[in-house]
Amino acid sequence: VQLQASGGGLVQAGGSLRLSCAASVRTGSSFATGWFRQAPGKERECVAAISRRSDSRKYADSVKGRFTISRDYAKTTVYLQMNSLKPEDTAVYYCAASAGVITTTPNGYHYWGQGTQVTVSS
Hints:
Blueprint lengths: L2 E4 L2 E4 L4 E7 L8 E7 L6 E6 L6 E3 L7 E6 L4 E6 L8 E8 L12 E2 L3 E6 L1
Parallel strand pairs: 2-11
Antiparallel strand pairs: 1-3, 3-8, 4-5, 4-9, 5-6, 7-8, 9-10, 9-11
């Protein structure tokens, strides 16, 4: 499984971005998918995850109510809609896929895409 993350960029605080994670295979029903981020000097953290059948979603407390993860079955793509962005959301964002159950633990994911930089200015 190959993953391609895109959609990052520079945005002002309060703005929005939508990240996309395009997979080389259909991930719906087969792979749980997570969005992670890593800021300089910090550990990689899961900000959102969606189960294989899209019937379960998990969010980090820091992004609840602002970020939404969704899956487009037709295009084998998972999105992360990020609203009301804050400077502390600045990080490299990665998407990852797991053949197992939904999890927020990086070790639970088997496939990783390259990162996309998100920078939020104050």
